[in-house]
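To the wet lab folks,

You asked to see what we're planning to order before we commit. Fair enough. Below is the target structure as tokens, and below that is the sequence we designed to fit it. If anything looks off to you, flag it before the synthesis order goes out.
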């Protein structure tokens, strides 16, 4: 087995498990009000945790789910991916619930710091798991997209169009197709994207700074005229 086969096995194992969760209940008891994405994520986290905890899912063990109402937790669920008691990889899972009418959206997928710290700690496999839904009669049900209920890919294989936005969040289009690359190539791509983002911010800041003196002059002139009009009106009271 080479590393590409290993990574494919990791993704496939978790993807099949989530597909199984969804196919077993296409109509979960989730209302189409409030934070629907968070409700779906909670639902998947609970069932993922229960199924891996049962010990029946080959190669997966030691599951955890995110603490309830902790939006700052770096993962929605995590587990160890194990092969023959020789390999044990900590896998972080980020569930993304996508309304089927919003396949052109660009959801946030985490901060660069989370990714950098994760890799610095000797880990690498952050898995995005997309599921699709629609709402009818105030209830949510799962639907397929191009014949699939689930799309899963490792962050390292994210489409090259991803970017860092001004809120310091990584983003990628929901429908962007993953691209297999090496871990080293992903690190280089990530750093390139960060450089490009900061350079854009620098240029935006330079432009804004260059306009400040003109803005100040315009504001002072406009204020002087309006203030004089007000003073004259007050004097005539």
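Sequence we intend to order:
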């Amino acid at each position: 087995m080479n590393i590409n086969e290993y990574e494919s096995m990791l993704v496939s194992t978790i993807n099949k498990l989530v597909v199984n969760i969804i196919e077993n209940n296409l109509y979960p008891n989730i209302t189409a009000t409030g934070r629907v994405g968070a409700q779906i994520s909670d639902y998947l986290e609970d069932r993922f945790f229960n199924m891996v905890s049962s010990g029946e899912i080959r190669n997966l063990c030691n599951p955890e789910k995110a603490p309830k109402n902790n939006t700052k937790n770096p993962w929605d669920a995590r587990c160890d991916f194990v092969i023959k008691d020789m390999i044990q990889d900590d896998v972080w899972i980020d569930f993304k619930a996508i309304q089927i009418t919003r396949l052109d959206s660009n959801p946030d997928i985490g901060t660069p710091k989370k990714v950098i710290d994760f890799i610095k700690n000797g880990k690498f496999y952050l898995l995005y798991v997309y599921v699709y839904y629609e709402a009818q009669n105030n209830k949510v049900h799962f639907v397929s997209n191009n014949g699939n209920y689930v799309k899963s890919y490792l962050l390292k294989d994210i489409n090259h169009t991803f970017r860092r936005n001004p809120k310091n969040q990584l983003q990628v289009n929901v429908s962007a197709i993953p691209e297999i690359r090496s871990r080293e190539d992903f690190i280089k791509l990530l750093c390139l994207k960060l450089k490009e983002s900061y350079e854009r911010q620098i240029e935006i800041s330079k432009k804004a700074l260059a306009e400040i003196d003109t803005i100040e002059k315009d504001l002072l002139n406009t204020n002087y005229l309006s203030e004089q009009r007000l003073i004259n009106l007050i004097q005539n009271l």
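Structural context that might help your review: Strands lie at 60-65, 77-83, 87-99, 126-136, 139-143, 150-154, 163-164, 170-171. The longest strand covers residues 87-99.

Thanks,
Computational group
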